[in-house]
Write a structure and sequence with these properties.
The protein has 76 residues and is mainly α. The protein is rod-shaped.
């Protein structure tokens, strides 16, 4: 059973008047899952860690090297 199907089944049970404890036992989920299903029809998105910004490969060059590379490429 996918997460979306599980959330839909829990919402149907809640609409029918089934208690939260009975739903927890039937679907083997926790109380937070039941309360999240009651709050929203979609499961919560997984939390993703923000990645730090990456620098350019040219950041390691000194200003003189960068200038020389820039003039060499612009001439060609």
């Amino acid at each position: 059973m996918s997460k979306i199907e599980l959330i839909a089944a829990i919402r149907r049970e809640l609409a029918a008047g089934t208690s939260g404890g009975a739903i927890e036992e039937k679907y083997r989920v926790g109380r937070r899952t039941v309360s999240a299903a009651a709050a929203s029809a979609l499961p919560p998105a997984p939390a993703r860690r923000a990645m730090p910004p990456r620098g350019s490969k040219l950041d390691m060059l000194t200003p003189n090297e960068y200038e020389r590379l820039h003039t060499t490429l612009s001439v060609a």
